[in-house]
Amino acid sequence: MKQPRLLRPSYFLWVPALAVFFVFGGALSRAHVIWTYEWRDNGTYDPSAPRHYTRCTYAGWHGVITEYPVDGACGWVRFARQPGARR
Hints:
By secondary structure, the chain is α+β, with helices and mostly antiparallel strands. It has one helix at residues 14-28; strands at 30-40, 52-60, 63-67, 77-80. 17% of the residues lie in helices and 33% in strands. The model has no long low-confidence stretch (mean pLDDT 79). A hairpin with a 2-residue loop joins strand 2 (52-60) and strand 3. The protein is built from one helix and four strands, in the order αββββ. A four-stranded antiparallel sheet has the order 3-2-1-4. The chain has a domain at 29-87. The longest helix has 15 residues, at 14-28.
């Protein structure tokens, strides 16, 4: 019986894509992904009910960014520059 290979080159195809993201993402800004959020409860127990978000916290390369959206929506990703960096 042939033993299966535990490490295959195809398992590491995501590494070059991640490297390109970090190299070119650093030239413009750094991506911050959603970490936590708070929303206004609409009084129902329906998980598919629309939510109005009141606070969005993103975690990323330059730390944590907290925003208070006026339109009630949080994005999945936010791009931000390092504080104090020149444009």
